[in-house]
Amino acid sequence: MQYGDFISVIIPVYNRAATLSRSVGSICRQTYPNLEILVVDDCSTDDIEGAVAALNDPRVRLVRRDRNGGAAAARNTGVQSASHELLAFMDSDDVSLHDRFEQEMRLFCSLPDDYIGVYAAAIAHTDTTEQMRSMAAARVLPPPHRRILSGDLFPETLRGNFIDMPTMLLKKSAVLAAGPFDERLRNNVDWDFTLRLTQQGKFGFIPQPLYVFSYVPRASHGNDHISHNPRYSVLSYSYITGKLRRAGHKGPEMAGHYAAAGSYLMRIGRPALARRYFEAARCITPRNPRLWAHLMLSRMPGLHGWARGRSTRFS
């Protein structure tokens, strides 16, 4: 690998024609020009073709899927369609800073061969209406207090996902070795993929934010975002922790994941099953007072919900 190699940038899109001029446009305006830009249309019903044509950039190629499969399926289609040995990802409503790939390539080319990728910090800001602008907030990810940000990141990823997958620049060989994005998941898709990817090699990190995305606050009124849906969350946590358990992982980080699954089960009215997850977590970390509290409150679902509401009111 050397500076100047081409990068295939994969951008899944579904009914986001209105945002492509901003999101894909931020890729077209990169200071690093050697790009193949793949817009993977997941059976949109709006004018994606017209939006791509309006970009007027020969590097942009529209790839159409035959049926709607979600972001994971669209990313897999993008990987299969990519012509080059370096891959990057981008979400269709986000923005990459103009020198993102220039900075990532310069770092990547300076690293030893056992490094399979680099990633950068990102700025996340709340998605609010004009009337709610006074409540807007922003933060830098990964958070500044995190210490281990480069090298072997699998142990850190095992504790929880802290890498924003769309900031990554990756060797295609490592992506293929990690396996495809799991199309059965509706949320935590990035974490599941990153768990497998970080086992393939080391990562470099750029502390300067090079990516900007919006998020819906968890406590927003009427928030029905998939990533905050407790049913999808419990399914993904139970599925991913099942994979980790079968792979032999039994450390304290698993207790946190079992507790999270238990909390989501409480939110969807399954206290008996939630107690099984809380008990599994307690067996790993028996001195954790929060787990004992979860176990006791799981027999009083109303009180458990009240306590959860107070602890997450400002999250």
Characterize the structure shown:
Keywords: Transferase. With about 325 residues, this protein is an alpha/beta fold. It has 2 domains: about 5-215, Spore Coat Polysaccharide Biosynthesis Protein SpsA, Chain A, CATH 3.90.550; about 230-310, no CATH class. It contains 12 helices and 9 strands. Strand 2, helix 2 (about 50-55) and strand 3 (about 60-65) form a beta-alpha-beta unit. Helix 8 runs antiparallel to helix 9, helix 9 (about 250-265) packs antiparallel against helix 10 (about 270-285) and helix 10 (about 270-285) runs antiparallel to helix 11 (about 290-295).
Quick synopsis:
This is Glycosyltransferase family 2 protein. The protein has helices spanning about 20-30, 50-55, 70-80, 100-110, 155-160, 170-180, 190-195, 230-245, 250-265, 270-285, 290-295, 300-310; strands spanning about 5-15, 35-40, 60-65, 85-90, 95, 115-125, 140, 170, 200-215. The chain is an alpha/beta fold.
